[in-house]
Amino acid sequence: MYKRQVLNVALIGVGARLMMRMLTGYGATFLIIQIYTLFFAHLADHLGLTLSLLVAGGGALALTFYLERWRRQQRQTPSFESPD
């Protein structure tokens, strides 16, 4: 069951090492999907419907804000300096 998470983390690592943003994006996307699947499979029954939906929705919203802020910071900082 946890082989998928390991493979997704490995895909993120390979994508980062080879500087292939598409691989890193796929790995991150499917890792997030796996984490949400595990959350709902194991914890949602114990927390109740309302609380589990609040946790999942709040987590997705927080992750979206974090990644958007990170993306904007990456766009503002130049990755190389041009020779003058």
Question: Can you offer a commentary on this structure?
Answer:
- With 84 residues, the protein is mainly α.
- The protein has one domain (3-76).
- Helices cover 82% and strands 0% of the residues.
- It has four helices and no strands.
- The chain has helices at residues 3-17, 21-42, 44-47, 49-76.
- Helix 1 packs antiparallel against helix 2 (21-42).
- It is flat, with a radius of gyration of 17 Å.
The overall average pLDDT, rounded, is 81
Q: What count of structural domains?
A: 1
Structural class call reads mainly alpha
Proportion of helical residues: over 70%
* Low-confidence regions: none
Number of helices: 4
How would you describe the oligomerization state of the chains in this entry?
A: single chain
Count every beta strand, where a strand is a DSSP E run of 2 or more residues: 0
Radius of gyration: 17 Å
Query: Judging from the principal axes of the Cα atoms, what is the shape?
Result: flat
- The end-to-end distance, rounded to whole angstroms, is 54 Å
Q: Helix and strand string, N-terminal first?
A: HHHH
Fold blueprint:
Blueprint: H1 3-17, H2 21-42, H3 44-47, H4 49-76
Helix pairs in contact: 1-2
Short synopsis of the structure:
The protein is mainly α and 84 residues long. It contains 4 helices and no strands.
Task: Please tag this protein with its features.
single chain, mainly alpha, 4 helices, about 0% strand, flat
